[in-house]
Amino acid sequence: MSNTQKHIHLIGICGTAMASLAGMLRAQGHRVTGSDTAAYPPMSDQLREMGIPILEPFSPANLTPTPDLVVVGNAISRGNPELEFILDRLPSERIPITSMAALIHDEFLAHRERLVICGTHGKTTTTSMLAWIYEVAGRTNPAFTPSFLIGGVAENFHTSFHVNPTSRTFILEGDEYDTAFFDKGPKFLHYFPDAAILTHVEFDHADIYADLAAVKTAFKRLVNLIPRRGRLIAFDANPNVTECCARAFCNVERYGLLPDSYWQATNLHQRGSATTWTLLRGGEEFARLTLPMAGEHNALNATAAAALAAGQGVPTAAIIEALATFQSVKRRLEVRAEVAGITLIDDFAHHPTAIRETLRALRAAYPGRRLWAVLEPRSNTLRRNVFERELVDSLALADEVVLASVFKSEAIPALERLDPDHVISALTTRNVPAILCADSDAIVANIAPRLCPGDIVAILSNGGFGNIYEKLPAALALKT
Q1: CA atoms of 292 and 246, how far apart (whole Å)
Q2: Which residues make up the CATH 3.40.50.720 domain(s) of the chain?
Q3: Which of 186, 270, 365, 407 is the most buried (most CB within 10 A)?
Q4: Whole-angstrom distance, CA of residue 345 vs CA of residue 367
Q5: How far is CA 17 from CA 23, 28, 101, 288, in A?
Q6: Domain ranges in the chain with CATH number 3.40.1190.10
Q7: Over 70: is that where the pLDDT of 40 sits?
């Protein structure tokens, strides 16, 4: 960890991980500046609370005075005016550049135990659960008090990061997305885990991975980094996970619902927004757990977090208490508003599997109520037609579906682009009412008059969705 204070500028500061890094660097005493073009909550709020201004738009002027180091976000590509200004400088005036993941390794991970949570689904929630387990354990044994970096704002902490100068453990969400325009490998390869969780492996990020085989190769490389003394907690019901773990040098402990799993969740029951189950360890009862969240997938996330924590020496009592008091993550089944008996829920939807599990969880939490799915195809996977059939299957779990136009559709080649009309037609064929609206304004105008008390509206997007989170409650309030 460096003791030299620097001026560090982040290009693309509003990304979830980049905003967290900005806060971590600020906590280290560095002067932090950053620029972006798309600032939206929760990370924009977090940056403002930390007193870190968001410079808009991108401009070489944002690099005055000249920073000591520039961190280039993975969403930044050639043509960005700040990046081009840096690259065009003469060798004698060169400004050093690095990636977020490389700087995290160099600045924060030395001499710390690294626990890395990875997978195409569930890693943000699981990382938040594990960090909270360690925080609760740290109340009675300060040696467990963690540092952490999460790809979302954990409600228990009201932040996405924490750096404790004396902590021996750093808990990180390991992202499989590429690192920077000059480093196309996944971020998690920079973290060199001592132990890890692998939740799911599916084809995702169609903009950078050619196929499922490429995704599996990335996760196999992650597994290959774990030392022989380490541990890997791996989901038991995904054949891709099994393949990725097959040549691990470390001990592999499978978790899930299958009878032969080392960590088996049994007697799973959902009552409203709470889930209870018994966790077996090697066939013997380990703990009876309660989680104030709906959804089998969340119980599985909690099982993985409990398994990793227990194997690292965290007391069982702390695990039980932490999961019972876990408060989720912003934009994961987050209730954003309740207006006139209508509940609006925000979920960070990026993949058909995530949409499916979200809608299943809402069915369990709100039985008998009309469920709306309002989707913005915004992620690089959802904007493509590679999962069109799976998307229809997931959305068909709702009673009413509203689809927005594909976000920045012109950036996707026509033959690869999702066709919303195909999705609407397929849903209609399955007797699921579905409509297409151009944008958030059109959606609000269409559905606000049709929503009724008791309705549950799942707003699904991994971006700002045209401020629909504010527009729709405002429109509903006018009805009361």
Answers
A1: 34
A2: 7-98
A3: 186
A4: 15
A5: 10, 17, 9, 34
A6: 108-324
A7: no
Residue-wise pLDDT for 56-115, tens only, equals 999 999 999 999 999 999 989 999 999 999 999 999 999 999 999 999 999 999 999 999
- The residue among 309, 313, 262, 306 whose CA lies nearest residue 288 is 306
Edge-to-edge strands of the sheet including 54-55? Answer: 54-55, 31-35, 7-11, 69-72, 97-98
Which tens digits make up the pLDDT trace of 463-479?
Answer: 889 999 999 999 999 87
- Are the C-beta atoms of residues 156 and 135 closer than 8 Å to each other? yes
In whole angstroms, give the CA distance from residue 440 to residue 7: 39
Residue ranges, CATH 3.90.190.20, the chain = 334-477
CB 7 within 8 Å of CB 31: yes
Beta bridge pairs of residue 149: 161, 172
What's the sign of the alpha-carbon dihedral 461, 467, 470, 474?
A: negative
Q: Which residues 6+ apart lie within 8 Å of 286 measured at CB? A: 263, 279, 280, 306, 310, 316
Angle at 336 between CA 330 and CA 339, to 5 degrees: 170
Is there a contact between 222 and 253 (Cβ–Cβ < 8 Å)?
no
Which amino acid type is present at position 116? Answer: V
Predicted TM-score (pTM) of the model is 0.87
- Residue-wise pLDDT tens digits, 377-394: 998 889 999 999 999 999
CATH architecture of 7-98: 3-Layer(aba) Sandwich (3.40)
The tokens describing 99, both together, are 């990636």
Q: Provide CB contacts within 8 A for 205, sequence distance 6+.
A: 176, 177, 215, 380, 381
Domain 334-477 CATH superfamily: Mur ligase, C-terminal domain (3.90.190.20)
108-324 carries CATH number 3.40.1010.10: no
Label residue 220 left, alpha or beta by phi (over 0 means left) and psi (-120 to 50 means alpha).
Answer: alpha
**C-alpha span between 21 and 300 (Å, rounded):** 28
Query: Which uninterrupted H or E stretch holds 269?
Result: strand 263-271
Which alpha helices (H) appear in 312-408, and where do they start and end?
Answer: 316-324, 352-365, 388-395
Comparing CA positions, the residue from 133, 109, 127, 112 lying closest to residue 175 is 127
